[in-house]
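User: Okay, second chain of the day. Same drill as before: sequence in, structure tokens out.
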Amino acid sequence: MRRFPWGVFVVVAVVLNVLRQILFPPGDVGTAATVGLFFAVLAISYAAVGLLRALGMGRPRE
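Assistant: Same drill. Structure tokens below.
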């Protein structure tokens, strides 16, 4: 993770966006809701990565 520290964020964001598209298909919700859900997922992803880092993930091992 030292070479790509935001890799965890990217993986979490992609997984959550896939789940969002399964639970709320873009064809079933409006455009504004789709955009809003996308940004909500990004915020949740950022918080999840912050929690993972606080728990010790992403720190170099000694």
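The helical segments are 7-23, 31-54.

User: Thanks, on to the next one.
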